[in-house]
Amino acid sequence: MVSSKDVAKHAGVSQTTVSRVLNTPNLVKKPTVDKVMAAIEELHYIPNAHARSLVQNKTNTIALLSGPLHNPFFVDTTAAIVNYANSKGYRVHVQFVNDEKLNEAYTSVVENKVDGVVMSCILLDDPIFEKFEKMDIPFITYNRKHINNKHFVEIDNFQAGILSARHMLELGHKQIAWIGGPSTVSTFKNRYDGFVEGMNTQDLASQYVIQTNTSKQAVKEAFEKLMQLPTPPTAICAATDAIALQTIDEATKAGYRVPADISVVGIDNVDLSKHGSIELTTVGSISEQNLGFLAINELIEMIENKKNSCVKITESVKVFNRKTTKAYQ
Amino acid sequence: MVSSKDVAKHAGVSQTTVSRVLNTPNLVKKPTVDKVMAAIEELHYIPNAHARSLVQNKTNTIALLSGPLHNPFFVDTTAAIVNYANSKGYRVHVQFVNDEKLNEAYTSVVENKVDGVVMSCILLDDPIFEKFEKMDIPFITYNRKHINNKHFVEIDNFQAGILSARHMLELGHKQIAWIGGPSTVSTFKNRYDGFVEGMNTQDLASQYVIQTNTSKQAVKEAFEKLMQLPTPPTAICAATDAIALQTIDEATKAGYRVPADISVVGIDNVDLSKHGSIELTTVGSISEQNLGFLAINELIEMIENKKNSCVKITESVKVFNRKTTKAYQ
DNA sequence: TGCAAAAATGAATACGTAACCATTTTGAAA
DNA sequence: TTTCAAAATGGTTACGTATTCATTTTTGCA
Question: Which of A109, A168, B228, B318 has the lowest tally of Cβ within 10 angstroms?
Answer without folding.
Answer: B228
